[in-house]
Amino acid sequence: MSRSVLASAALLALAAVAQAQTPAAPAAAASGPAAAAPARPPADPTAPKPFADVIKGAKEQPGLFPVWRKDEKVWIEIPKEAFNKPFLFSVNVANSIGERGLYASQMLGDEMVEWRRIGNHVQLIALNTKFRSASADSKLVLEQAFSPSLVTAGPVASADHPDRKSVLVDASALLLGDIPGYSTRLEAAYRLPYAPDRANSFIEASRADAQITTLTSRVHFATPRIPAPPLVAAPVPVPTPPQATPDPRSMFFSFVYSFRALPEKPAAIRHADPRLGHFMESYSDLGDDTKANTRVHMVNRWRLEKKDPNAALSEPVQPVVYWMDKNIPAKYREAVKAGILEWNKAFEKIGFKDAIQAKQQPDDADWDNMDSTHASIRWFTGSDVGFAIGPSNKDPRTGEILDADIGMSDVFGRGSRRLAADDVAGHGHSHSHDHAHAASWMGERSRALSEQFCSYAADQASEFGFALDLLALRDGMDMNGPEAEALAQAVVKDVIMHEVGHTLGFKHNFRSSTTITQAQLKDKAWTEANGISNSVMDYNAYNLPLKGEARSTLTNTTLGAYDYWAVEYAYKPIAAGQEAAELARIAARSTEPQLAYGDDMDQGVGGIYDGFDPRSNQRDLGDDPLAYAKKRLKLNQELWERVQARKPEAGEDPLRSRRSVLESFRQLGMTANNVSKYVGGLQAERIVPGVTPGQAFKPVETAQQREALRFIATGLLSSDAFKFKPEFLAAQTLDYNEWERGLPLSIPDTVAALQGRVLDRLMSAATARRLIDQGSYLPEAQRKSAVSLSEVYATLQGAIFSELKTGAEIDRMRRSLQREYIKRLQLQLNRSTNAATSYADAFAMARWHASQLAGDLRAASAKPGLSVETRAHLAESLDLLNSMLKATLTRT
Predict the structure, then answer these.
(1) What are the DUF5118 domain coordinates in residue numbering (predicted)?
(2) Has this prediction a pTM greater than 0.85?
(3) Where are the domains of the chain?
């Protein structure tokens, strides 16, 4: 019993006692005309006020949960029958601060919730959907085992309405706290303790209809003070306070809270198949103890039903409508619309006409499409932003997609002027990490938003700049002319197709670009009709020709074979009794080469999932990723030659050439990572036991591994691959209008970062383990010829320290590379800091080659005629190696 109920009961009891102890009045006196009225018990001061008194003078917004507003006061009305009834609660951020992952127009998450009333207290409870059972007996056990979560709570603001049987709650009490967990996000970004300030927060907007109630909270976050910088530099860099706000101690966010009714009739469930890439609603079914695997995966998809089920081609009962926000620049609206509607081609193949529609929000509209009933595409910006994202809200009962808001950064508006590289990549922020953290506020279901984080827009925009640079310098293309503008529009369409695909329920497919042949890529008629990849869900590179080759289609223009297949599996209307067999037939096509599939984990996300199949990559093109890597280096070298030969013009951006060079290295870094996958690589196939023929894992062909290793050693690790004229480097100026203007351009440092990425891959624990273990996947006759860990280390060491054998001078760039190698060798020999060293064979091999290198350094140091710089470098390297080899080992 609540405190208010106990207090009321106590007061009534005291009143009854007092009345019993009062002497009764004479009967005559009691009936006389002048007799006083019987005394009433005093009112309970803690009891809620009558409903009518609370909303007197307020204006109602009727809806699922009616909203009452009076001045700055806002109440939500909850009908009695709405308590303990599930609905969907979602949160978006409409206004933000524009830096470090804190951007506007973003979906944050959703949960299935219900209102619960405890006396005069109302709770919004997130239901636990991770564990389920159809068995009545198991449901009670699950309720006891797995807790729900409290989203927010507050006291009732009124007594029950006598007729409507509803109660009011104060919206400010419910929605002005930190529901999305932004204090943690701010602390992660700035390492400062921000907290919501209720006194300066308010409900700024609301709307309601029969399906949804939406309220927008303007929440002020603040920190009492910004600490003084440390007197001594910290060993780990400390992030700066907010840079994009006038005062770093204060900032506002607008959170859009939507309360949406779940469909009365749940959608039909379609179970996922691992051979295709669909986002899923997943849970553990604990109602059947005969199942070895309790996990259930339901495809995320919109509810599409034919108006005429018997027609070969029919309009849907309810199409998927994307509202193009009025903040999309007018010049890009047609390209955005084209990207949306391109998906209708796939839906027509399965019998739907105009399943996907695009509508433009009027420029004078006074409504916001960030509620949970308008699928939308919104343009947003920030000081360091360059990504796009395609998240969605789902019905957790079935996986049905109910809403989607694509966030599209304005990087394309700046791409043609080459600002994307400087504003987005130049500051070195990790947007993927920031955004993945942003999605974690509501647990497992909302963490799925991080899977839908997408850097495709940033990558496309930055490579768009590379393409414009190269074409302008090679062919004289006007960077602000109609040809460049047409390419920009094509890139926008490409990225919108990709992001709309996410909101239709499709994951990335990073293997589809390798299913197009080099000959097809050079055939413009073929690429115009079929695109440059078999899926728009890949991170497809630009189809740039080498010098002297004819130009084909530069970027993706249409859906690929995989996209049609993914749509068919998720959305094809199938009679219930035939669904299992028909879905099995559709999925069985996975062995067709053009339908090859590899997701983010296959491509590599870091840690143990480093991506070991060289066919699943970002930013490659064609059926031979190794050949593309060689081509990419040639394209970069051509750009560097042309940039150095170009004469600057008066009035141009002083950082133009500098930015072009740095951005080209960023793109080359992706290529370097991709080609490094060949060494110790495994080809992975998504087989279903007893259904799909073939091996699940197969080592990359030995010849390909050695070819990749040779290209790395003679190309990416060679100083000759990176030639820049001293007069060019000396001419690269800084932006003297900025406080943080940077330092002079250093090609050795830039090359060292690129080469370090290659060494990180080839000298990692995962690569060592695969090289040692790959023999177990090969027949006996092939094991002796396989690439060994010793061969890889010997090849790297020989290429990196080639001067030790010849007695040649070691220049600045080579000294940097050799230091990077020794750093990683040191990690390999330190059991306490690197997991690789816990693998005995890898540790022994690293120690063996370190000993060999020490001997080579000692011999080289004795050779006459070397410069002081080279002698000092050799002495320092030898001292480091000797210290590492003499270090005491703790053996267990």
Answers:
(1) 48-94
(2) yes
(3) 1-31+39-47, 51-227+242-260
